[in-house]
Amino acid sequence: MTGQVPRAVLDKEDFQGVDIASIAAPVTKMARTILEPGQAPSILQQAFHLMRSGRPGPVLIDLPLDVQLAEIDFEPGNYRSLPPYRPAATVEQADAVLDMIVASERPLLLAGGGVISADAEDLLVRLAEILGIPVASTLMGWGVIPDDHRLAVGLVGIQTVQRYANATFLDSDLVVGFGNRWANRHTGGLETYRSGRRFVHIDIEPTQIGRIFAPDLGIVSDAGAALELLVAQAEARRARGELPDYSEWVERTLEYRRTLLRRDDFDDVPIKYMRVWGEMNKAFGGRCRYVTTIGLSQISAGQYLHVYGHRGWINAAQAGPLGWTGPAAIGVATALPDELVVGVSGDYDFQFLIEELAVGAQHNVPYVHVLVNNAYLGLIRQAQNAVFNMDYQVQLSFENINAPETGGYGVDHVRVVEGLGCLARRVQRPEDLASAFAWAEEQAKTHRVPVVVEVILERVTNVSMGPDLDKIKEFEPLPE
């Protein structure tokens, strides 16, 4: 809900008067300015209905000041909220999916964010276990199946990706997607992505079916509703002995997991980013909720970190709003005050909304924020060089006369963080990472404020992009 100038001056360039409904329309499910006070109950009823129906999303209601102050006749006892609309698959559609799975040799389930929105993680894992087939994840579906589950094959894509996941995907002959969008950073080139395999797409949003490419079978359904049917029908088929044995296929995926791993044990100074994520896996394990948004930090973290549970990875996906990590981590830590929340940022993401740390200090919101700082705008500079063959001077790397210990990395984030009422520590050697993470977790619990661990990284620009999806089969090691 947004405040607005009185109706009489809406179109008269009044102070802070702007047509916010038009501005917000492209990024909301509904955006509307209430011009008649008596319409407020029905518009709000519609807003809550739309917000929760189909794929969940935001609505914006704009309230002019005189509408806010108006009195209307309204009897709360006569008000009833509208139930959200959630389409559901049919038994016939579930059987059609299972028929395609049974007819394939190397089927793969693909978990998207819609599975998490439907709270259907357990159902998807149950379906995979009944059928005995592997599960891959999209960036928004990470955590649906624990990374250490025998049937988990990791993240498929061109950036935030495990090599063994791509190898598994390219060997599959059927992909059944649940609540996913076929986003381009997942698919890469569609010709390679689609070649040699069939697709089933199950999604709650009708406009998503066929939006990127036409699946062999499209089903408009809430992921949870579809999975409930599929689990029931699959169990019935198993009881009748009608399910194939996919153990050889699963063993092949496990071999990929054993052999296509990236190194994370580098001892270099400045620190390599791989070492940071390796130490975080040891320090935090499956006990935390990771929050991140975009950039080299998000991509590389997704390549190396491990997620083991429900909403263990909270991400802004393709929206990619720099600065989102800090406020989002504060929100997660507020919702889950007794759980370990870990934000992951590069220096540019961190600097966008660094002042929000003071909100965490003011309201005693504890979380750990890992800042991997190359003072180099790695991903942005990489794109500039690749596309324009230019190097724009927008990074904040300079000799700080007040903080020579930053070593030319510019902003003294430790002092800034402390000035905002939080705690911080800078790490410049890999052997100090483990103790810094343990210190940060303990300080967050003790003082109930955000705690920042800044890690000084090597200045690199080309580590975020893995090999092209169509080259994964070569199994060549990534550059060190």
From TrEMBL:
It is an enzyme of class 4 (lyase). Residues 95-229 form the Thiamine pyrophosphate enzyme central domain. Residues 294-455 form the Thiamine pyrophosphate enzyme TPP-binding domain. One of its GO terms (molecular function) is tartronate-semialdehyde synthase activity. Its EC number is 4.1.1.47. SUPFAM superfamilies: DHS-like NAD/FAD-binding domain (SSF52467), Thiamin diphosphate-binding fold (THDP-binding) (SSF52518). Keywords: Lyase. The keyword Lyase applies. It holds the Pfam family TPP_enzyme_C. CDD domains: TPP_PYR_POX_like. Belongs to the TPP enzyme family. This is Tartronate-semialdehyde synthase.
